[in-house]
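Ticket opened by: R.M.
Priority: normal
Category: complex prediction / small molecule

The reporter submitted a protein together with iron/sulfur cluster and asked that the result be attached to this ticket for the collaborator who will pick it up next week. Submitted input follows.
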Amino acid sequence: MSRVVFREERCKGCLLCTEVCPTEILVQSDRFNKQGYKVVCVKNGDMEGCKGCAFCAEICPDEAIIVYRSKKDSEESEELEEAHV
Ligand code: SF4
Ligand code: SF4
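Result attached by the on-call engineer:
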């Protein structure tokens, strides 16, 4: 399974990432960062729907998202590497 990590302090709440996610797992949370922006999170914290496509990381203007993909193309693999954007 792939994993998405947010650098929340960089987020400006533009929601571009929520628009490009093909599985629509990214949503705006109720939490504000120190800059006063509502940060994005994974819906119900459920990463199952993440395909590791890194579209979210690519479109984020503030480099607030890091996507980790399984090194092997296996759902069981725990070994993750950062997706190149
Ligand atoms: S990597 Fe792709 S599927 Fe996963 S959260 Fe980002 S846009 Fe959605
Ligand atoms: S694209 Fe980046 S700055 Fe915009 S809401 Fe998503 S994480 Fe925040």
